[in-house]
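To whoever is on call:

I kicked off a structure prediction for a single chain this morning and the downstream step that reads the tokens threw a length-mismatch warning. I double-checked the sequence; it's 185 residues and nothing unusual in it as far as I can see. Pasting both halves so you can look.
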Amino acid sequence: MSALTTYPANQPGQGQTWRDFDAIAGQLSGLGVQFERWQAEQTFAADAHADTILAAYRSSIDKLKQQYGFQSVDVISLNAEHPNKDALRQKFLAEHTHSDFEVRFFVEGKGLFYLHVGDQVHAVLCEQGDLISVPADTKHWFDMGENPAFKCIRLFTTEDGWVADFTGDKIADSFPTLDQYLAAL
């Protein structure tokens, strides 16, 4: 089940958590973040090719491209056996921004987005069927856990795809990892 915890940025142990989907969407809407529940009923093999996943959701992707003018789409899919999982996890755990508006749709599995807005940090547990947008220039990071298990469609407003500007802030080190967050729910 999806969850949202909002923390003071300087007090990572003092969060308030919501589990009701409408309450989560309402809280995130105030930040300019779109959070929706989509149908994710397709089942894929662990090694399913990105083209197979994109083809299964072509009509939804086309609607998003038309609505927001997305220029590129890809799939990120990781599991516990992925040879580069540790390096990829470290890259996504570093706080960064993107100059473009981005959308993620969780086709399978789960992951934890952190959005650092002003003096608050919002942890958003996304699960299968969740669609989340991150406004341009929003500081954020993502944790897939020690044993990742997710497939996610990513949409970008630029043709370059995922391009991060790392802030150099070590704030992510003081907040719970995905595994710690799940254990505390």
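Update from on-call: the warning came from a stale cache, not from the record. Cleared it. Sanity check on the structure: The mean pLDDT is 94.
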